[in-house]
Design a protein that fits this description.
Blueprint lengths: L3 H12 L2 E4 L5 H11 L7 H10 L4 E5 L6 E10 L20 E9 L8 H13 L4 E6 L4 H5 L4 E2 L4 H7 L7 E6 L8
Parallel strand pairs: 4-5
Antiparallel strand pairs: 1-2, 2-3, 3-4, 5-7, 6-7
Length: about 190
C-alpha cells in the first residue's frame, strides 16, 4: 500500500506531465503500460512501432518533464471508413484515400489519472481528426460513457467489423463521432 505522502507526490508529478510525440525508443515502455492496462488485449511492440513510424503526429506519450517517465500513451491514425485494423495487426501503410480518423488506444496508468491528462490528449488528437468527417474507436471495459462525453456514439456495423470486435472482448463497442467542422455540412 502506498503512503498518503507518496500518493500526493505522484499526483503532483502527474499534474505537470505533458503530451508529446512518442519516440520509437519508448515503445518498450509503451508495451509495459499496454500490458498492465490491457492484459487480455496484448499487442506486439512491432505493431505499435509501425503506427508511430506511419503516423507520428497521432502517436503521443504522457511524459513526466523531470524524470521523462512514461505515464500513458495514445495511438491514432487515419483509416478507411469503418475499417479499423484487427487487434495486433500491421497497417503496412496509411491509405491515401483514408476518410476517417481512428483512435486505436488511449491508456494512462492509474497513478496518473484524474489530472485531466485524458482530456488534454483528446483535445490534441481531435484537432488532428478535424481533417476527417468522423473519428472512430473501439470502446472496451465499459468505457463508452467516458467516450460519449466527447460525442462518440454507437453506430451500425457490418459482419466484417463485428468479427474484428470479437478479439477486443465481449463488451467491445465500435463508436463514432462527427467532427466539428463537418457537423453542419449535412
Amino acid at each position: 500500500m502506498m503512503s498518503e505522502a507518496k500518493e500526493k507526490e505522484l499526483s503532483e508529478t502527474t499534474k505537470a506531465c505533458s503530451w508529446r510525440c512518442l519516440p520509437l525508443d519508448r515503445i518498450r515502455d509503451l508495451v509495459k503500460i499496454a500490458d498492465s492496462i490491457h492484459p487480455g488485449l496484448s499487442e506486439r511492440a512491432d505493431v505499435f512501432a509501425e503506427r508511430v513510424k506511419l503516423f507520428p503526429d497521432g502517436c503521443l506519450g504522457l511524459f513526466d518533464p523531470e524524470t521523462d517517465e512514461l505515464y500513458g500513451y495514445a495511438i491514432s491514425h487515419p483509416i478507411n471508413h469503418r475499417q479499423p485494423p484487427a487487434l495486433d495487426s500491421f497497417l503496412n501503410d496509411i491509405d491515401a484515400s483514408a476518410d476517417q480518423y481512428y483512435i486505436h488506444d488511449l491508456a494512462i496508468l492509474p497513478r496518473a489519472r484524474g489530472s485531466g491528462s485524458a482530456q488534454k490528449c483528446l483535445e490534441l488528437i481531435l484537432t488532428i481528426a478535424e481533417r476527417y468527417e468522423t473519428t472512430s474507436l473501439v470502446s472496451v471495459y465499459g468505457t463508452a460513457p467516458f467516450w460519449s462525453k466527447y460525442g462518440f456514439e454507437g453506430c451500425e456495423i457490418d459482419d466484417k467489423l463485428r468479427a474484428k470486435l470479437v478479439d477486443y472482448g465481449d463488451d467491445a463497442m465500435y463508436l463514432e463521432r462527427r467532427n466539428k467542422q463537418h457537423r453542419n455540412h449535412n
